[in-house]
């Protein structure tokens, strides 16, 4: 059993080398954070999870132990914070979030920078040139966000967000929320 653990540690260390090289290029400002995140999103399977874990552990504002980030999932901003034992499903995208401990994000979950990250108020001016009001979305501890959900607002501790839901406002802790827009369904048992 000990040799199996040693072999697993050696394999993880070998998989970490490309991520560490990318971290060095990022620190030298030869590669952007977004480029590094997108390149490593392409790596499949366990080696890909290890690569992304090593990359984000060294580049995010905060990254706890036990991060598992699936294939083609991307964190776009280094200001993002991730707690312990967080799972981010395949094809998910996080713009700028502060994620607590013991959080699960399903496949294809999108966490935007709030509902007003783009400006639309002034007609005659392209939206790309209007200032928005981006915010860092906070996701509390012990949260499960279902497949295909879109998160535009904070998510309280202990919340379960139903698949396909669109979270537009903060709800009470320990509730199951679902729908478009997400509404409380029932308390968590």
Please, could you describe this protein's structure?
The chain has 189 residues and is α/β, with parallel strands linked by helices. The protein is 26% helix and 21% strand. It has 3 helices and 16 strands. A 7-stranded mixed sheet has the order 2-5-8-11-13-15-16. A 5-stranded parallel sheet has the order 3-6-9-12-14. Strands 1-4-7-10 form a 4-stranded parallel sheet, with helices on one face. The protein is globular. 33% of the residues are buried.
Calculate Rg over CA atoms: 18 Å
Largest sheet: 7 strands, mixed
Structural class assignment: alpha/beta
Shape summary:
globular
Alpha plus pi helix count: 3
Write the layout of secondary structure elements.
Layout: H1 2-27, H2 33-41, H3 45-59, E1 62-63, E2 68-69, E3 74-75, E4 81-82, E5 87-88, E6 93-94, E7 97-99, E8 104-105, E9 110-111, E10 137-139, E11 144-145, E12 150-151, E13 160-161, E14 166-167, E15 175-178, E16 183-187
Parallel strand pairs: 1-4, 2-5, 3-6, 4-7, 5-8, 6-9, 7-10, 8-11, 9-12, 11-13, 12-14, 13-15
Antiparallel strand pairs: 15-16
């Amino acid at each position: 059993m000990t040799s199996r653990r040693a072999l697993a540690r050696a394999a993880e260390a070998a998989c970490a080398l490309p991520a560490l090289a990318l971290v060095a290029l990022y620190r030298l400002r030869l590669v952007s954070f977004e480029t590094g995140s997108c390149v490593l999103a392409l790596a499949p399977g366990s080696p890909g999870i290890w690569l992304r874990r090593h990359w984000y552990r060294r580049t995010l504002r905060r990254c706890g132990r036990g991060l598992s980030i699936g294939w083609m999932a991307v964190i776009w901003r280094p200001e993002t914070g991730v707690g312990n034992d967080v799972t981010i499903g395949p094809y998910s995208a996080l713009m700028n979030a502060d994620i607590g401990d013991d959080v699960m994000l399903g496949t294809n979950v999108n966490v935007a920078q709030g509902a007003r990250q783009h400006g639309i108020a002034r007609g005659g001016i392209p939206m790309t040139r209007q200032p928005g009001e981006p915010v860092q979305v906070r996701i509390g501890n012990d949260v499960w966000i279902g497949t295909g959900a879109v998160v535009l607002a904070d998510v309280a501790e202990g919340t379960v967000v139903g698949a396909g839901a669109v979270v537009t406002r903060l709800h009470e802790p320990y509730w199951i929320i679902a729908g478009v827009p997400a509404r409380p369904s029932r308390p968590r048992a």
